[in-house]
């Protein structure tokens, strides 16, 4: 049966090759098969939803681990396993970026392992642990972005290296952590390094040969950004002005302007558009990005890009945070959802954003439809102006207005964002988005910093604290929530001790799954949020929970392995910075609950 | 700070009225001049505030060390607490490790900072800050600086 599926896919591709390929047929075929989990986000739309229902609300409490597999790597394990119907799970690790093909027939026997040879000097230039968000698969090939900026394609059958491409230079602070996405005949990848003054870019490589097809930068002249001010839309109108990626920066600051697109890419095959967000604009000290002492937009950092998948041309842009003053790195996933908006059907794009705001946009035009706070403590902006699409910043929390070498206190959310990279889930049945979020605030002090190639280019110090109770906090550092993206409202919320840093999963079995930093995988009722089941994996979970069906049996699988920014910021707990001496241990320390170690755990229902 | 004190579980905020001199032949003056000489590991704490150079050490730590070793020297999921390291290691060993780096095990690497003039210039201040933390004289977060008379 498995072989047949592959033969059919191969035949389909052969047929497409003669007529011109639209979308990647093998990925489209796979995402239509509910048994498979073919991309990191489950489908091109980024929904992380499965139509499987063997495991459901009524029996999930019987779920047991079937087998476990240690990856042999200690640091933070983001991303998750792929299942493409060939009887194996494909998993990856953080640096040194091992790739394993594990046999489902033999409880995870290693069919092959690939470990690239990388310069270990890349490790210290990874800002927030040596994470990697996983593999992509198409047409019998696996794709991965190595930490050292090498994009590789392997033969999934035996792990043989088919091609590699050089996407950047780690000695200049560039790295890669994101998961590629295969679209049409191209592999789409983005770089990391926003804390090292890199210039962000997204690049398409030929999936078969590894040749570069196009590259779009996050700033600089329009010819570099692949933007046409007369046709690229912003808030539904042409951008108008040329080269805003240069003119909205002082001097040549755009050349180290960050905007690294290190998050997830989603894709609409009908519109043939890819969607992704760009990161923070270079240094965290806003004064160095101002022009003549006035805030400057620093385009196109913290911007949602909709690009033509074949040419890279920007169809529309939406800058979520012009002139960032808080490191509100705008890379969070763009969920493609079809919604009813004011009585009409709209092709929507929803974001649970770093900023604490939940956005809904029209994904054809980039028009902003909804911008509402999902984290109640959010205070850096009072609201978004729906006409201009710009946030109304509260001067009390403006680190630019407060000034260089001034400690601006009590800003919510923290630089980690009200949600970081942990991808959300969308259930088409409930119409709700389910997401693990952070409930953390910060003090932020910008300072002058000098750019040195390959060195950190941060320019701010910060202290973090739990969201205060009077601002809506619950004493813990995270929540798991159900969000109505059209109404812009939280439907229910579960309070957690720590930030919820794992990718969510929802299924047709009326269950939502998520992982916690202590290491619990939890199942809750999709409609009510009621707790149904949990299991403690060996280490904290910052990976994503995926599901698939093999030979009639549904499995749920997750990589545990604490780390990432959460593992750096929360290991020893948070304290009241004004407490001074003796403040250690006021808030729970992650280090008291979990230790390092990458493990894949595969769950199923017991045989009757 | 907008956080209600009630949140802090009733822990007293009492000012710490102590002066601590960690080690070394001289005590820091705390006068905070740019050119101030600061014996590595020496610091001054008054009423919970630190001298200017120890504060520089805090800043340098936050800029160059915290990305791996966590906020305030407390350690992260993968990198050790440098507060504890300052308890156990002398300045010679500390400075050698920062300058040369260390491969703890494959994939767990402390980089060399020998080519980073900012870090090398502030090495002694960083050590003073960590010593003050290790001695329990400076708590979490951004310390206040002793104001000049």
Low-confidence stretches of chain B: 1-35
The CATH superfamily name of chain A is: Quinoprotein alcohol dehydrogenase-like superfamily
Please give the largest β-sheet of chain A: 6 strands, mixed
| Helicity range of chain B | 25-40%
Described by strand count, sense and barrel closure, the largest sheet of chain B is: 2 strands, antiparallel
The largest sheet of chain A has its strands arranged as 15-14-19-18-17-16
**Strands of the largest sheet of chain B, in order across it?**
1-2
List the helices and strands and how they pair.
The complex is a heterodimer of chains A (608) and B (149).
Chain A: H1 2-19, H2 25-31, E1 49-50, E2 64-70, E3 88-92, E4 99-103, E5 109-114, E6 136-138, E7 141-145, E8 150-155, E9 161-166, E10 181-183, E11 186-190, E12 201-206, E13 212-217, H3 222-225, E14 233-234, E15 237-238, H4 244-247, E16 266-268, E17 273-277, E18 303-308, E19 314-319, E20 335-341, E21 344-352, E22 357-362, E23 368-373, E24 381-385, E25 390-393, H5 399-402, E26 408-411, E27 425-427, E28 432-438, E29 440-446, E30 460-466, E31 478-484, E32 489-496, E33 505-507, E34 511-515, E35 520-525, E36 531-536, E37 546-550, E38 553-560, H6 564-569, E39 599-604
Parallel strand pairs in A: 1-33, 14-19
Antiparallel strand pairs in A: 2-39, 3-4, 4-5, 6-7, 7-8, 8-9, 10-11, 11-12, 12-13, 14-15, 16-17, 17-18, 18-19, 20-21, 21-22, 22-23, 24-25, 26-29, 27-28, 28-31, 29-30, 31-32, 33-34, 34-35, 35-36, 37-38, 38-39
Chain B: E1 45-46, E2 49-50, H1 52-64, H2 66-69, H3 82-88, H4 91-100, E3 102-105, E4 108-110, H5 117-121, H6 123-134
Antiparallel strand pairs in B: 1-2, 3-4
Helix pairs in contact in B: 1-6, 3-6
Describe what this molecule looks like in 3D.
The complex is a heterodimer of chains A (608) and B (149). By secondary structure, chain A is mainly beta. Chain A has one domain: Methanol Dehydrogenase, Chain A (8 Propeller), CATH 2.140.10.10. In chain A, the strands form 10 sheets. In chain A, strands 15-14-19-18-17-16 form a 6-stranded mixed β-sheet, with no helix packed on it. In chain A, a hairpin with a 4-residue loop joins strand 16 and strand 17. The longest helix of chain A has 18 residues. The radius of gyration of chain A is 22 Å and the shape is globular. With 149 residues, chain B is mainly alpha-helical. Chain B has one domain: Cytochrome Bc1 Complex, Chain D, domain 2 (Orthogonal Bundle). Chain B has a two-stranded antiparallel ribbon with strand order 1-2. In chain B, strands 3-4 form a two-stranded antiparallel ribbon. The radius of gyration of chain B is 16 Å and the shape is globular. The N terminus of chain B is likely disordered. Chains A and B meet through strand 30 and helix 6 of A and helix 1, helix 2 and strand 4 of B.
